[in-house]
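Lecture 7 notes: from sequence to structure.

We start with a single chain of 289 residues. Read the sequence below before looking at the structure.
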Amino acid sequence: MNEQQGFSTAGIPTVAVVILLALLGLACEGYALLTQHMLIGALGVAIHVVTVFMTKGFFQVAPNEGQVLQLFGKYHGTVREEGLRWTNPFCTRRRVSLRVRNFESSKLKVNDSDGNPIEIAAVVVWQVVDTAEAVFCVDDYENFATIQSESALRQMAQNYPYDAHDDGKPALRSHGEVINNHLRDEIQARLDKAGVRVIEARISHLAYAQEIAQAMLQRQQANAIVAARERIVEGAVGMVAMALDRLKSQGVVELDEERRAAMVSNLLVVLCGDRATQPVVNTGTLYGG
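Now the structure, written as tokens:
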């Protein structure tokens, strides 16, 4: 079922018509009282009944709002024109907001693609675009949007690891744009039948579950330490090579293999150590001490 335009007319001109009918009814009744003409009096009463019945057809439409009309249980269209409107008094009306809305899902506990338990939540921004589908295709479109969004979030989280182990594979923590786009598409696929358009979906909370949070934190710290050590060693080796090349090119000192190995060892200790080194003055020789 798709939305279609419902019948309605401008309310202000119709108000004028209703007032004129009410005055006409009063005139007929007054004339009947003066002339004792019962037929004219009955006509005046009938006009008043029609006038009162017509007043039931007035309704207001606010900006970014639609009024879904039903005539004897059948969908009669949707009115989106703002202001005071008038339609068939037999029609029942239901107000549907077309404004942009958002909600934050509850924190879900799921397993990522590696099997690690994680906590995840998302913020979803959505809007009704088809009032007929929103009202007649689902029982409660607001509750439907909430539940289906959480279902899509759970499904999406199971397809990615928390941390990236491969540079080419997206992860929940490091590839935010890819994850958010996937989440939006997953939610949109579920809400199409409810006449809802998903404007944006973003992860608002992401963490390891409490039972493994401490262990995962230690693993992250270890990975950071290893990465830092690799960088330090890489820089230290380059500095040692540069120092040896300078000594050789400028002829400062001639080093045999054993002295070169000792200097490399000492420089690496100085450059890679966690604490400041204390110099030791050797008053002897390398071979005799």
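The longest strand covers residues 196-208. Keep this in mind for problem set 3.
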